[in-house]
Predict the 3D structure of the following.
Amino acid sequence: MITPGRALDHPEAFILENTRLQSSPLVPEIQLHLADEMLPLWKLTEAELDASGLPPPWWAFAWAGGQALARHILDHPELVRGARVLDFATGSGIVAIAAMKAGAMSARANDIDPMAIAATRLNAEANGVHVRVSADNLVGQPSHGWTAVLAGDICYEQPLAGEVETWLKSLAGDALVLMGDPGRTYLPKTGMTRIAEYRVETTRELEDNDVRHTTVWRFEP
Ligand SMILES: C[S@@+](CC[C@H](N)C(=O)[O-])C[C@H]1O[C@@H](n2cnc3c(N)ncnc32)[C@H](O)[C@@H]1O
């Protein structure tokens, strides 16, 4: 059992002790430090941080949207080859890692959760790729020169989804903007083109089904 305060003071140690290196069925070429179950880890994180009402440990799972987007990029490397990539709301870092494996010039993995930042560092290292990380809230900011902006599974709550929709639409004039989404409640209704579909295996603990039909969308310029 880990010692109290470990998650905040030593996030990497917390992650290594509470996950195992594994890959998701759809993206076998990427290894990630993932948890097998959500609830025990969530409770442990809250106990560790001495806080309640924390968001779930998103970083400990490869979500259907991120898996589909990573698969699509690995199978279509021309989409990101030589690109300056932003992986917005990176979680485990799966999409940023896929982009680097596919030949991106650089990938910045962004997430406001410090545990996601630590997990992404560990996961990038496990896959032998260099990913830059940042924990700023980028929503609404002008482009930092990204030529591809990727976002996996971000339409699960408001006001985040609405703010991100407006922001991603504003970036789509100058960059390729792709989103992976398994039909979440706040998916934008307009301004996107469906470019691929995947069947993503998941668990009943995380989702309401064993399989999520997941779409990769391109935001229209
Ligand atoms: C469902 S997870 C998806 C993670 C990953 N993209 C995937 O598909 O596996 C959503 C992520 O969004 C992050 N997030 C929420 N609000 C954010 C914001 N304003 N900026 C950056 N990341 C944010 C959360 O911390 C979480 O890691």
